[in-house]
Each structure stands twice: as C-alpha cells, then as structure tokens.
Design a protein that fits this description.
The protein is of the alpha/beta class and 276 residues long. It has helices at residues 2-19, 26-29, 42-54, 80-85, 92-95, 123-132, 150-153, 173-186, 209-225, 234-247, 252-271; strands at residues 32-37, 60-63, 101-106, 116-119, 137-141, 158-161.
C-alpha cells in the first residue's frame, strides 16, 4: 500500500508540474502590475486579487476606490495579504508612472479608442517583447460602471479587447482580471533566461509613462509660453500630447533628449523680451 501511495504522490506531483508549465516565471510576474481604476465593489477587488494569486501575480494598485474598506474584502480567498500590500495611488498617472507599456482593457461596444486595439489572444507576445527589453507592464482595468474613460485610456499604449457578446458586453471586474491573466498563462511566455541588466537592448528600453508625462508637461508649458493656443485648449492639448508621445514609442534616451530640447526652448522663450 505504501508503494502505491508513493507512486500516486509522484504522479500527482508530475501532473501538477505539467499543468503549471505555462505560468510566467517569477521574474516576468514581478514586472507586471494589475491596476484597478475607481472600482466600486470591494468584493470585485477581492475577486481580482484572488485571480492574481491563482496565476502567481503579486503587484496590485487600486486607484481611487469607491469603498474605503476594500482591503477587508472577504472574496480575496487565499490572497488577503495581497490586498494589504496593494498600493493606493491617487491617480492613474501615478499608478502607471514606472510602466513602459500600459495596456488598457475593455470591449469596443461603447467606445472608439484612439489607441491600437489588440485582440486578447495576441497580447502575450507584445508583453513578452516589452519584458525582454527590461520593461515594466501595467494591465489596467476600469470601473465596473463604465470601464476606462477616454481620459484614462490616454495613458495607455494599447487597448486589449476582451471579446464578449454584444447582447452582454459588460464583464464582471474579477472575471475580466482572471480572463486576461489566464490568457497570459495559457499562451506560455518563454522563460526569462537572462536578467534585464545583462541584455544590451535594455539601454534602449522604452521611456516610462512617468517620463512621458514629464515631457508632455514641458511641451505644454512651451506651447503656452509661445502663445500656441488659448488657455481653454490646455486640457485638449494635454490629451493629444499624451496620445502622441505614446504612439511615438520613444526610448528613455529619446525622451531625455527631447525633454532637454524643449526645456532649452522654454528657457529662451521666458527670457525673450515681451513686445509692447
């Protein structure tokens, strides 16, 4: 009987190892953060945390949650510490400031996105490509009530379309997180053989979202100093700049050089004598 038990245990361990072979390795999982924007129901936040734990992800950021007691959600079965350790940034911009690839999620039923739209099954290789360059990825989910707004989408490089029936396009937040993370796991990203610092292409990694926001701010200030457009256009200009800079896919080095250029122009504009 003991021999049979040992044999059965070994078989079970083999089955588990085979079943889990698709999961991202730990280094890859550490470079992906799940961001929930304005979630309304703590139970949905807990369900999202449980889904993250299922697939081995630990980094969670919750932006302006509706209910202040969300860290106590009972639905985070097996993942209460994940809720306790989650970040609570004040804005989406702050939440994704360190990410070099920001991926928004949703359906196209009620929106016309200005970002590149990627079907969910195709997102895995894009995320792995970013990780191979040493980049950081943020996977962003909107509110249960309306999803990601137009303004929130402007922080995203891509929009992942979760295919749903048009008769019921809305998906529960916890389910959406689970579906997206399962897709990454089931597509089997290749293991991270070399640490990012050992790769020469890391020198040309994409600019972080925070650096792009800094650049957008200086460009906007330069436009204002040059009298490019009236102040009432400031919000529209910032939105357009945010989209444009992400479409350009700037490297860190590129963004630093352009930032220096616009700072120099701005300095000149501020020192130039004003006409009477």
């Amino acid at each position: 009987m003991e021999g049979r038990s040992n044999k059965g245990s070994a078989g079970a361990r083999t089955a588990v190892a085979f079943y889990n072979r698709f999961l991202l390795d730990e280094a890859q999982r550490d470079r992906l953060e799940v961001v929930l924007v304005s979630p309304r129901n703590p139970l949905n936040i807990g369900a999202a945390a449980r889904a993250m734990a299922n697939f081995g992800f630990r980094r969670l950021a919750v932006v302006t949650p509706y209910d202040p007691t969300w860290r106590e959600a009972r639905s985070a079965i097996g993942a209460p510490e994940l809720l306790l350790e989650a970040k609570e940034p004040a804005t989406l911009g702050e939440a994704v400031s360190g990410a070099t690839l920001v991926v928004g999620t949703g359906s196209l039923t009620y929106r016309r996105p200005e970002q590149t739209v990627v079907p969910l099954p195709d997102i895995g290789p894009l995320i792995q490509g970013e990780m191979s360059r040493g980049g950081e990825v943020a996977l962003v989910f909107g509110s249960e009530k309306h999803g990601l707004t137009r303004e929130e989408l402007s922080y995203c490089h891509l929009l992942v379309e979760i295919p749903t029936d048009p008769r019921q396009p809305s998906m529960n937040l916890g389910q959406a997180v689970a579906v997206c993370l399962y897709e990454l796991a089931s597509r089997g990203l290749l293991p991270d053989a070399n640490p990012p610092a050992a790769r020469p292409e890391v020198r040309n990694r994409a600019s972080s979202s925070g650096n792009l926001e800094l650049l957008a701010g200086v460009v906007e200030e330069t436009m204002t100093a040059a009298g490019y457009s009236p102040s009432v256009m400031q919000a529209a200009n910032r939105y357009d700049l945010r989209l444009l800079l992400r479409r350009l896919a700037l490297t860190e080095r590129d963004s630093r050089r352009i930032l220096g250029l616009f700072r120099r122009i701005l300095w000149r504009l501020k020192r130039a004598p004003r006409g009477r």
